Amino acid sequence: MLQMYRDYETEIEFKNDLDNIYLDIETTVPLGLILSELITNSLKHAFRGRKKGGISIKFKYIDNKYVLEVSDDGVGMSKSDKKDSSGSIGLMVVEMLTRQLNGVLEMNGSDGTSFKLTFNE
User: Fold this and answer.
1) How crowded is residue 23: how many other Cβ atoms within 10 Å of its Cβ?
2) Torsion angles phi and psi, residue 90, rounded to 5
3) Distances (CA, A) of 80 to 27, 85, 86
4) Structure pTM?
5) Would you kindly state where each structural domain of the chain is located, as residue ranges?
6) Each residue of 75-119: pLDDT tens digit?
7) Could you tell me what percent of the chain has a pLDDT over 70?
8) 6 pLDDT tier (thresholds 50, 70, 90)
9) Around Cβ 46, how many Cβ atoms within 10 Å?
10) H-helix or E-strand containing 61?
11) Beta carbons of 66 and 77 less than 8 angstroms apart
12) Residues 52, 11: contact at Cβ < 8 Å?
């Protein structure tokens, strides 16, 4: 994936903070698709015109809930970007997959962009 979207002038550092978690296939597939879409969005949009950037991925089991956080330190999303994102096929798929997991998705577009998905298995 990195090769497809990589701007070779931008150095991207990945930071991972992952618990060792085992999930069933009905959870793993939608979770993997969500993760792929959120990373792809960061690679495509977050670092235009920048020499360096970072993407952080956290996956934890906290208080009987699974929490996936994907964030970047890129340009963030303006209010108009947030409105336009509701028409984005990729983010619509993320929202549908979140519903499939009976999860809650939170987005923050300041100081980069971050998504937090909380769900139970």
Assistant:
1) 13
2) -60, -45
3) 32, 9, 10
4) 0.86
5) 2-119
6) 887 655 554 555 588 899 999 999 999 999 999 988 899 999 999
7) 85
8) low
9) 22
10) strand 52-62
11) no
12) yes
3-state SS class at 111? coil
Of 74, 112, 64, 70, nearest in space to 94 by CA: 70
Amino acid 100 reads Q
What pLDDT, on a 0 to 100 scale, did the predictor assign at position 93?
94
Which residue type occupies 34? I
d(C-alpha 31, C-alpha 94), whole Å: 9
Question: ∠ CA(63), CA(37), CA(89), 5° rounding?
Answer: 115
- For the structural domain made of 2-119, what CATH number should be given? 3.30.565.10
Q: Tokens in use for 64?
A: 């009987």
Element (H, E) at 93: helix 89-100
pLDDT at 18: 97
Mean pLDDT on 58-64: 97
